[in-house]
Every structure is written in C-alpha cells, then in structure tokens.
Give the backbone structure.
Amino acid sequence: MKKWLTVGIPAFKAEDHICDCLASISIQTTVNEISVIIAKDNPDDNYEFVKDRFPNLDITILDCEKNTGPGLARQRCADACETEWITWIDADDVFFTPFSLEYLKGGINQDVIEVQGIFYQEITNHPKGVRTVPKNDMFHP
C-alpha cells in the first residue's frame, strides 16, 4: 500500500519513552500507509531495538552528529521524508486515539486541516491550582 504520511520524531535521550509513542502509532487505523522517521539527536542514544519491537512499522533512524535541538532534528526528518505529507510527534508523546491519523487524512482529503491539542495539565504550585482541560481548534484554509 502506498505511504501517504511520514511521522517525524525528534528523539533525545528518549529510550525510556519512545516505545509508548511508537505503540500509539502502531495501532493507528492507517498504520500500513505510514512511515516513521526517528531523528536521534544524541549520538549516544540507541533506538535500533524499536525495529524488532514494532515490526509492523516502517521505521527509519537518522543519526545526528551532535545534539542540535528538536528544530534541526525535525528538519532532518523533513529532508528524509519521501511522502507527500509529514506530521510530528515528540518521542515522549502519544497519539490520542487509534483514529488520530485517519482524521488527519480525512481532513486533507476534504481540504480541511484540523489541528487538535488535547491535553490535561495541572500546575500544583499555582496559587489557584490552575487546570488546563481539553481544547480543540479547527482551521479551514
């Protein structure tokens, strides 16, 4: 099946977290249409084990000579991308549902790009105990 999307993952000392991220990609309904590029931003990191752990994912691992930061690591993913579309996820994040990338594809096919930021955050040292709850923003080009 033709790949339509690359998921770029800038990774810096993320061996303990990247499996959760890749697990959320491996259960996507469009998993057979997705490529994954991990830009390892620390020469001492080793992510080769993920290829054995997630055989259903098309994973490419890029080496960086030194820590250059997430912006340049994302650029390395973009430069290596061979699909028409690319999206990003941090190595310590996960996609919210198994339909996350299917929704993205549906929006692209309808010329509607939906950007969702779904998170829950508690700031315990704030005097009023600030809580940030789910938020959705929709953009129509």
Notes: The helical segments are 18-26, 49-53, 70-80, 100-109. Strands lie at 5-11, 34-40, 58-63, 85-88, 113-117, 121-122, 131-132, 135-139.
